[in-house]
């Protein structure tokens, strides 16, 4: 089971020293040796604990990181950490669709969210009377579900 770190924020991947006699820390990225010293402008390894601290993440940092700590008793391998870029596309723009529903009649509306990583969650809101103003939906007879269906 891997842990996830999202990009576009300062990232810290921790590997704390639980034992006093750690001699060496090694990091792997996507199964290959990763040397933080090769990227001093954006990542440092904290002395004495092995944690990686990224000052700025970009798409080249995405991958699966894993720390190894070695001492005279052997090597311990930490759980992998996945660093991934987060993004979301925009909905197609256009004029709002006007739907007329008689009071008391049922109405259902599906929403397909735009492509994103990780997958987007859909929240329904009401457009206010003024441009740029929105209202939450707080009515006992209006519902939505995890599949973004509104009824």
Automatic annotation (TrEMBL):
Q: Record's InterPro entries?
A: Ig-like_dom, Ig-like_dom_sf, Ig-like_fold
- Give residue ranges for domain Ig-like: 25-84
Mind telling me what this protein is named?
Answer: Ig-like domain-containing protein
Organism of derivation = Caenorhabditis japonica
């Amino acid at each position: 089971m891997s842990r996830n770190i999202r990009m576009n924020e300062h990232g810290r991947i921790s590997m704390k020293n639980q034992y006093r006699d750690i001699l060496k820390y090694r990091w792997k990225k996507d199964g290959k040796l990763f040397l933080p010293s090769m990227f001093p402008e954006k990542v440092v390894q904290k002395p004495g604990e092995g944690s990686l601290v990224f000052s700025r993440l970009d798409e080249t940092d995405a991958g699966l990181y894993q720390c190894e700590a070695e001492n005279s008793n052997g090597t311990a391998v930490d759980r992998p950490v996945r660093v991934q870029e987060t993004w979301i596309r925009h909905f197609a723009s256009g004029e709002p669709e006007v739907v007329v529903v008689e009071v008391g009649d049922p109405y259902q509306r599906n929403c397909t969210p735009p492509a994103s990583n990780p997958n987007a969650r859909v929240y329904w809101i009401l457009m206010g009377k003024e441009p740029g103003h929105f209202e939450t939906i707080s009515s006992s007879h209006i519902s939505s579900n995890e599949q973004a269906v509104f009824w």
